[in-house]
Amino acid sequence: MANKSIIPILTAFLALLLISTQATTNPGVRLRITDKGLQYVDSIAVQLLDEKIKTASIPDITGDADTPVGHVSYSLSSIHFNSFSIPSSAFKTDPGVGLQLQISGASTSLSGNWHYREDHWPHISGGGSFDLDVSSLTLSISMKLGADSTGHPTIAAASCSSSIGDVNIHFHGGASWLYNLFDSYIDKKIKETLQDKLCEETSDLINNNAEKELSTFPVKKQINKYAVINYSLVSNPNFTDSYADVFIKGEFQSPTAPKEAPFSPASLPPESESVKMVYVWVTDYLLNTAGLVFQDAGVLNETVTPSRLPPNFSYPLNTNTFKLIIPKLYQMYPNRPMKLVAYSTQRPKVSTTSAGVDLSITGQVESYVQLENGSFVYTFTMGLNISALAKVAVRENNITGHVDTVKVGVSLIKSAIGDITIDMKLLQFVLDAFADKIIVKQLNEIGDIGFPLPVVNGIQVINAQVMPGQNFNLIATDVKYSPTTNAALEKTPQGNNKIVIV
Ligand SMILES: *[C@@H]1O[C@H](CO)[C@@H](O)[C@H](O)[C@H]1NC(C)=O
Ligand SMILES: *[C@@H]1O[C@H](CO)[C@@H](O)[C@H](O)[C@H]1NC(C)=O
Ligand SMILES: *[C@@H]1O[C@H](CO)[C@@H](O)[C@H](O)[C@H]1NC(C)=O
Ligand SMILES: *[C@@H]1O[C@H](CO)[C@@H](O)[C@H](O)[C@H]1NC(C)=O
Ligand SMILES: *[C@@H]1O[C@H](CO)[C@@H](O)[C@H](O)[C@H]1NC(C)=O
Ligand SMILES: *[C@@H]1O[C@H](CO)[C@@H](O)[C@H](O)[C@H]1NC(C)=O
Ligand SMILES: *[C@@H]1O[C@H](CO)[C@@H](O)[C@H](O)[C@H]1NC(C)=O
Fold this sequence. Notes:
The chain is rod-shaped, with a radius of gyration of 35 Å. It has helices spanning 2-23, 35-54, 177-214, 284-296, 327-332, 424-447, and strands at residues 29-34, 61-67, 70-85, 88-94, 98-118, 125-147, 153-171, 220-224, 227-230, 238-239, 243-248, 251-253, 278-283, 301-304, 338-344, 349-353, 356-370, 376-395, 398-415, 451-452, 459-469, 472-481. α2 (35-54) crosses α3 (177-214). It is of the alpha+beta class. The structure holds 2-acetamido-2-deoxy-beta-D-glucopyranose (7 copies).
């Protein structure tokens, strides 16, 4: 009976564990936009706002008032912006809330037509054009950034306020009493109209244009037929007083059978970087899920035949090469071509420290000898441990990896040609040559292509630097942005993610 009572307790405990792990899920990728990055966004936002406002239409202003010519109805129509100038603006974090755009000292000039008509007989009327100068214009708008249920980033204008200092009007062809009418009635209406217009246009820029650009954030990025990257946001971004952090799942997944990796990202140090516009922490978790997905897909294998070796390779794939290393193999099959079937037996593992990136691959190699009649006969299996030192870099918008040195450990696992003795020292020579000419080359063919950074369309990474840290590589970079009209179509390249383990 003791068992029975313990089960609910265990279940409750497990549920608690699940909740607490969920609440503290570390991101696989953390993306930070610094003050410098926001300043850059500011320059783009202000330029877009300027273009947008200049083409905005302004509603007619109408009313009626007592004037020296009697009670009149008046209207200002066809009002349009001639110029808009924003000499000073700031795009900043609003700690704990979101972002804030502040504009001050802006000025604008507008033109339009004026018209009035006396309400009673003799219905005196008049009209002409007018010019309007507005100065000391301010705007402050805050925006909320978040993540929707599908992990897409969202942005929405929250509160907006605008004020206008001085408004000067010049009525062409107008009587002087018009200025009194303006001072006592129209001035206030124009200010209200303009303030509303500024907030409306800015909100629209955020709610539509910015939202549309953000919608190109690649929450799911196809890498090849074996893998997609999950770049979903795992929580709302965090806004401190000097940067905004975006927390991204950062996990490779199988497109056909996605599942959670049985390991999780290590927590990242807070740090306070600010020299570059953007910082991206790429955790070992992300790289390790790539290894997991490719291992599970069974694609980390390679068959090495004599023709796959470089033409002038010093160790031909022939039993002659093994004459001294495995004498028995040569005795049984003298001067016969060989074939090696190599595959990884565990997911490749990445482990980064400030000293660099270690990559380790564990696999096996099956050796076959080709007979006179063309068929292959299995001879033995070796176990291999490969450890490599790699460097993470950024090329165009891709995170890439490059292996410089490789060390190979070897052991005999089984033999189909009876007891064999292997001269391990001699074998190591051959393996080192293989490692240098085949393994490094193959690893780098995959690594140099890399995979894309989580950025919206139109962003170009420039002057990126990569620094290894404890369980992560930190990419520090500036960016350049060119607004895109339509999201580029996702291409699905056919992957050739093979590694040779010989
Ligand atoms: C991506 O990761 C998020 C967060 O763990 C998860 O909710 C979502 O289902 C994943 N997306 C896919 C396509 O698996
Ligand atoms: C969010 O920012 C605050 C500072 O404003 C910081 O104390 C907190 O640790 C941050 N949270 C995360 C998850 O980074
Ligand atoms: C080896 O990888 C290829 C894809 O590169 C795959 O089609 C094949 O099934 C794999 N073979 C084994 C024995 O896992
Ligand atoms: C082998 O040939 C390649 C090109 O065919 C050449 O780059 C390389 O230097 C040669 N290696 C040796 C050891 O001769
Ligand atoms: C080739 O020869 C071997 C050994 O003599 C034999 O077992 C095998 O069946 C032969 N294969 C073919 C395709 O004839
Ligand atoms: C490879 O490493 C594993 C674990 O470190 C070890 O158990 C195994 O014996 C090694 N194999 C070889 C061939 O060195
Ligand atoms: C970036 O990575 C993707 C996915 O692996 C690849 O298709 C693309 O060619 C890479 N781009 C560059 C410039 O290497």
